[in-house]
Amino acid sequence: MMQSFLLLGLPYVAILGCIAGSIWRFRTRRFSYSALSSQFLEDKSLVLGSMPWHLGIFVVLAGHAAALLFPRVWAGLVASPTFLLSVEAIGLAASALAFVGLSVLLVRRLTNGRVQAVTSVVDLVVLAIFLAQIVLGVLIAVIHPYGAAWSTGTLAPYLWSLLTLRPDASLVIDLPPLVQAHLALAWGIVLLVPFSRLVHVFSVPLAYLWRAPQVVVWSNPRRWSSSVAAATVLPARRLFLRGAAALSVGGALLAAGTAETLGRFFFGPRLSEEQQARLDARKLERLRQTQREKELAVERAAQRYIRIATLSELDARKGRYFIDYEMRPALAFLGEDGLPLLISAKCTHLGCTVASELDAQGRVLCPCHVSFFDIKTGMPNAGAPAKEPLPHLAWVLMDDTQQVVASRGADGRDYGRVDPERAASLSVYIAKREERVS
Q1: Bridge partners (DSSP) listed for residue 310
Q2: With a threshold of 0.70, does the pTM exceed it?
Q3: CB 157 within 8 Å of CB 170
Q4: CB burial readout 301-338, b (16+ within 10 A) else e
Q5: Around Cβ 181, how many Cβ atoms within 10 Å?
Q6: At 273, which helix (H) or strand (E)?
Q7: DSSP string for 362-374
Q8: DSSP states along 336-351
Q9: Per-residue confidence of the chain (438 residues) as pLDDT tens digits?
Q10: 296 with 327: CB under 8 angstroms?
Q11: What is the spatial distance between Cα 111 and Cα 120, in angstroms, rounded to a whole number?
Q12: Which of 192, 236, 313, 332 is deepest in the core (most CB within 10 A)?
């Protein structure tokens, strides 16, 4: 019940509350429709905190907005591992920057007497929520990485379902608790906007960029002389704006000139019709291979036994590859006791397939990172990258009438008795369930 409210009810409460509260505040307390700057009370800590906070949160919000507003475009971009890792790194760096800046602002409000006098409980609540949001975001990035990729298939459709008045909580109901808490706190921030200093996001003084310069003349002689000196600096603002405009135009031209190169980097080169046909053929072959693997997995799951070979076909020095019920590679050897020895062929380090031939010490080699495994114990050699042993597999021996005459359990114990005269004709199987014969 509470989860449904946080994911479906709270978003609409927050949006409607933000709209209604903003209108109410503008009509009843119009002159408070700003951030109520405390720069005149204290400015050193404000600069140290405000700049990194605004810069960091702007980068973080820009990344969130790009992924949620343009999910298809964003999904195409993050398909590149380089772009995805870059986004994750920039997001973490921006979060750290925002956290440092916000921490400075919080300490400033708690320790500076002048600023504390104009600080309300809502101000402290908003700062605490933002700090919690940043911490949650960093934890999500560390514990559940690559959110820039998986959010386009979960959070983006969820937000669009809310905006189109067709809310669908199933898109996010199975997400980790950290992500759901991050969502709930975000809606809480939206709800607090009209009742806190956050309302200044609706009153950005864009007109300051093009308004005429204002000259303030002080009656005090000392300040008057200072104002005259400062008046000569006023054109610097216009020069700054012109420089910024020139840089923006230059950046746009540079982006236009490198767009094709960047597009080729992220989306791959343009292919001719023949090259595209060959690429499509390879993709189709991979799909067919995947289909065959799935069909084999379904077929094996329905079988009680999977045949490997006859006992006479097994060799003591060269293993015979086969695939188990979990579609993992394994090896079958002839043991020193004349019975089968079945062992996994999937290296416990990074999952590579080990070689099938034994060395002089009775070990198989994983060629990926050079680990040697003793097939009797399954243990890797000392100092090997692999630390866990290769597990042995249980087996059964059947005669020509499909009667189980002997078996070996997962614990390594043997059951039944093998007649040496009939051993060569017996077949080796792995069973879906362990069987013990008397």
Answers
A1: 427
A2: no
A3: no
A4: eeeebbebbebeebeeeebbebbbeeeebbbbbbeeee
A5: 16
A6: helix 273-302
A7: SEEEETTTTEEEE
A8: TTSSEEEEE-B-TTT-
A9: 677 777 788 888 888 888 888 888 888 877 777 666 676 666 777 778 888 888 888 888 888 888 888 888 888 888 788 888 888 889 899 999 999 988 988 888 888 878 777 778 888 888 889 999 999 989 988 888 888 887 877 888 888 888 888 888 777 777 888 888 888 898 888 888 888 888 777 776 666 667 776 665 555 555 555 555 555 545 655 666 777 777 777 777 766 666 555 555 555 566 678 878 888 888 888 888 888 878 777 777 777 888 888 888 888 889 889 888 778 889 999 888 888 889 888 988 878 888 888 888 889 888 877 889 998 888 998 888 888 898 888 888 888 888 888 888 877 788 888 777 777 788 888 887 776 666
A10: yes
A11: 14
A12: 332
In order of their start, the domains of the chain are: 2-205 (1.20.950.20), 305-431 (2.102.10.10)
CA dist., res. 29 & res. 17, Å (int): 17
The answer to whether 99 and 131 have CB atoms below 8 angstroms apart is: yes
- What is the spatial distance between Cα 421 and Cα 428, in angstroms, rounded to a whole number? 16
Rounded CA separation 438/432 (Å): 19
Structure tokens at 392: 């042995």
Alpha-carbon span 382 to 372, nearest angstrom: 9
Please answer whether residues 420 and 297 qualify as being in contact, where contact means their C-beta atoms are separated by less than 8 angstroms: no
Q: How many CA atoms lie within 13 A of 97 on its CB side?
A: 17
Specify the residue for token string 């810069």.
55
Q: How far apart are the first and last CA of the chain?
A: 56
Calculate ∠ Cα 362-367-370, nearest 5°.
Answer: 75
Angle ∠(322,327,329) on CA atoms, nearest 5: 40
Sign of CA dihedral 226, 229, 232, 238: negative
Contacts by 398-404, CB closer than 8 A, 24 or more apart:
398/305, 398/426, 398/427, 398/429, 399/425, 399/426, 399/427, 400/425, 404/435, 404/437
Nearest CA-CA partner of 67 in 157, 143, 142, 164: 157
State how far the Cα of 138 lies from the Cα of 95, in Å rounded to an integer.
7
